[in-house]
Specification:
Length: 173
Amino acid sequence: MKPAAALPDLLTAEPSRVYAPDQPLAELGFAEQFVVWCLRVQWRMPEEGQERSVLLQRAFDALDLPGGAALVAELAGALTRTVPRPLSIPCPRWRVLTSDEVRVLNFIAALQRHGASPRAALDPSWMATPCGASPIWAPAQRLALALSAAGLVLGSPHAPASPFPEAMPRILH
Protein backbone atom coordinates (compact mmCIF):
# COMPACT_ATOMS: atom_id res chain seq x y z
CA MET A 1 0.00 0.00 0.00
CA LYS A 2 1.25 3.46 -0.86
CA PRO A 3 1.91 5.93 1.94
CA ALA A 4 -0.78 8.58 2.36
CA ALA A 5 1.61 11.28 1.16
CA ALA A 6 1.96 9.53 -2.21
CA LEU A 7 -1.79 9.34 -2.89
CA PRO A 8 -3.24 12.12 -5.04
CA ASP A 9 -5.50 14.60 -3.28
CA LEU A 10 -8.24 15.68 -5.66
CA LEU A 11 -9.12 18.74 -3.58
CA THR A 12 -5.66 20.21 -3.10
CA ALA A 13 -4.00 19.24 -6.35
CA GLU A 14 -3.14 22.11 -8.62
CA PRO A 15 -5.07 22.01 -11.85
CA SER A 16 -3.27 20.35 -14.72
CA ARG A 17 -5.26 22.27 -17.30
CA VAL A 18 -4.73 25.94 -17.89
CA TYR A 19 -7.62 27.80 -19.49
CA ALA A 20 -6.86 30.40 -22.14
CA PRO A 21 -8.96 32.56 -24.45
CA ASP A 22 -9.42 30.93 -27.86
CA GLN A 23 -8.58 27.53 -26.38
CA PRO A 24 -10.53 24.80 -28.21
CA LEU A 25 -13.23 23.16 -26.13
CA ALA A 26 -11.86 19.81 -27.31
CA GLU A 27 -8.89 20.37 -24.99
CA LEU A 28 -11.12 20.63 -21.92
CA GLY A 29 -12.43 17.87 -19.70
CA PHE A 30 -16.11 17.04 -19.37
CA ALA A 31 -16.57 19.21 -16.26
CA GLU A 32 -15.23 22.30 -18.01
CA GLN A 33 -17.16 21.60 -21.21
CA PHE A 34 -20.35 21.16 -19.19
CA VAL A 35 -19.91 24.44 -17.28
CA VAL A 36 -19.18 26.35 -20.50
CA TRP A 37 -22.17 24.76 -22.24
CA CYS A 38 -24.42 25.62 -19.27
CA LEU A 39 -23.34 29.26 -19.26
CA ARG A 40 -23.85 29.55 -23.00
CA VAL A 41 -27.31 27.98 -22.94
CA GLN A 42 -28.33 30.10 -19.95
CA TRP A 43 -27.03 33.27 -21.61
CA ARG A 44 -29.49 32.74 -24.46
CA MET A 45 -32.48 32.89 -22.09
CA PRO A 46 -34.76 35.96 -21.93
CA GLU A 47 -34.24 38.62 -19.28
CA GLU A 48 -30.45 38.52 -19.72
CA GLY A 49 -30.10 34.90 -18.68
CA GLN A 50 -32.13 35.07 -15.49
CA GLU A 51 -34.91 32.67 -16.47
CA ARG A 52 -34.21 28.98 -16.06
CA SER A 53 -33.65 26.85 -19.14
CA VAL A 54 -35.67 23.65 -19.55
CA LEU A 55 -32.75 22.15 -21.49
CA LEU A 56 -30.39 22.91 -18.60
CA GLN A 57 -32.86 21.46 -16.13
CA ARG A 58 -32.94 18.19 -18.10
CA ALA A 59 -29.13 18.09 -18.17
CA PHE A 60 -28.86 18.63 -14.43
CA ASP A 61 -31.62 16.08 -13.78
CA ALA A 62 -29.50 13.55 -15.71
CA LEU A 63 -26.66 14.33 -13.29
CA ASP A 64 -28.96 14.01 -10.24
CA LEU A 65 -28.61 17.74 -9.56
CA PRO A 66 -32.21 18.95 -9.72
CA GLY A 67 -31.32 22.47 -8.55
CA GLY A 68 -28.42 22.93 -10.96
CA ALA A 69 -30.30 24.97 -13.56
CA ALA A 70 -31.37 27.44 -10.88
CA LEU A 71 -27.74 27.75 -9.73
CA VAL A 72 -26.55 28.54 -13.25
CA ALA A 73 -29.38 31.08 -13.67
CA GLU A 74 -28.40 32.68 -10.35
CA LEU A 75 -24.75 32.93 -11.42
CA ALA A 76 -25.72 34.37 -14.82
CA GLY A 77 -27.90 36.95 -13.10
CA ALA A 78 -25.09 37.92 -10.72
CA LEU A 79 -22.67 38.28 -13.63
CA THR A 80 -25.15 40.44 -15.55
CA ARG A 81 -25.71 42.74 -12.57
CA THR A 82 -22.06 42.97 -11.49
CA VAL A 83 -19.91 43.17 -14.61
CA PRO A 84 -20.09 46.72 -15.99
CA ARG A 85 -19.75 45.67 -19.64
CA PRO A 86 -21.38 43.12 -21.94
CA LEU A 87 -19.92 39.68 -21.32
CA SER A 88 -18.47 37.61 -24.12
CA ILE A 89 -20.60 34.45 -23.86
CA PRO A 90 -21.16 33.05 -27.39
CA CYS A 91 -23.70 30.55 -28.65
CA PRO A 92 -23.40 26.95 -27.38
CA ARG A 93 -21.91 25.75 -30.69
CA TRP A 94 -18.88 28.08 -30.52
CA ARG A 95 -15.77 25.86 -30.42
CA VAL A 96 -13.33 27.99 -28.38
CA LEU A 97 -13.30 29.71 -24.99
CA THR A 98 -13.77 33.44 -24.61
CA SER A 99 -11.86 35.52 -22.07
CA ASP A 100 -14.96 35.85 -19.88
CA GLU A 101 -15.53 32.09 -19.91
CA VAL A 102 -11.89 31.63 -18.88
CA ARG A 103 -12.48 33.96 -15.91
CA VAL A 104 -15.56 32.01 -14.82
CA LEU A 105 -13.83 28.63 -15.18
CA ASN A 106 -10.77 29.80 -13.22
CA PHE A 107 -12.95 31.18 -10.44
CA ILE A 108 -15.11 28.06 -10.12
CA ALA A 109 -12.00 25.84 -10.23
CA ALA A 110 -10.42 27.90 -7.44
CA LEU A 111 -13.61 27.62 -5.37
CA GLN A 112 -13.49 23.83 -5.72
CA ARG A 113 -9.84 23.45 -4.64
CA HIS A 114 -9.01 23.26 -0.97
CA GLY A 115 -6.18 25.64 -0.18
CA ALA A 116 -6.64 27.67 -3.35
CA SER A 117 -7.20 31.40 -3.32
CA PRO A 118 -10.53 32.09 -5.05
CA ARG A 119 -10.14 35.83 -4.45
CA ALA A 120 -6.96 35.79 -6.55
CA ALA A 121 -8.86 34.03 -9.35
CA LEU A 122 -11.74 36.53 -9.33
CA ASP A 123 -11.38 39.30 -11.88
CA PRO A 124 -10.89 42.58 -9.93
CA SER A 125 -13.40 44.37 -12.16
CA TRP A 126 -16.05 41.91 -10.92
CA MET A 127 -15.79 43.22 -7.36
CA ALA A 128 -18.52 45.43 -5.96
CA THR A 129 -17.44 48.74 -4.52
CA PRO A 130 -16.76 50.10 -1.96
CA CYS A 131 -16.33 47.01 0.25
CA GLY A 132 -14.64 44.83 -2.36
CA ALA A 133 -17.18 42.02 -1.96
CA SER A 134 -18.50 40.38 -5.07
CA PRO A 135 -22.13 39.42 -5.68
CA ILE A 136 -20.72 36.71 -7.96
CA TRP A 137 -19.00 34.86 -5.11
CA ALA A 138 -22.01 33.21 -3.41
CA PRO A 139 -23.76 31.90 -6.55
CA ALA A 140 -20.43 30.68 -7.98
CA GLN A 141 -19.63 28.94 -4.70
CA ARG A 142 -23.03 27.20 -4.60
CA LEU A 143 -22.55 26.03 -8.19
CA ALA A 144 -18.97 24.88 -7.47
CA LEU A 145 -20.16 22.84 -4.47
CA ALA A 146 -23.02 21.27 -6.42
CA LEU A 147 -20.70 20.35 -9.28
CA SER A 148 -18.22 18.84 -6.82
CA ALA A 149 -20.99 16.81 -5.20
CA ALA A 150 -21.83 15.40 -8.65
CA GLY A 151 -18.18 14.52 -9.25
CA LEU A 152 -17.56 17.36 -11.71
CA VAL A 153 -14.28 18.91 -10.56
CA LEU A 154 -12.81 21.57 -12.80
CA GLY A 155 -9.10 21.41 -13.53
CA SER A 156 -8.72 18.00 -11.95
CA PRO A 157 -5.49 16.39 -13.10
CA HIS A 158 -7.14 13.00 -12.50
CA ALA A 159 -10.13 13.56 -14.80
CA PRO A 160 -9.67 12.37 -18.36
CA ALA A 161 -10.19 14.95 -21.06
CA SER A 162 -12.76 13.57 -23.48
CA PRO A 163 -12.91 15.22 -26.87
CA PHE A 164 -15.83 17.52 -27.62
CA PRO A 165 -18.61 16.61 -28.47
CA GLU A 166 -18.13 13.01 -27.31
CA ALA A 167 -18.00 14.10 -23.67
CA MET A 168 -21.37 15.84 -23.85
CA PRO A 169 -24.40 13.58 -24.00
CA ARG A 170 -26.05 13.71 -27.40
CA ILE A 171 -29.42 14.72 -25.92
CA LEU A 172 -27.89 17.96 -24.70
CA HIS A 173 -26.76 19.20 -28.14
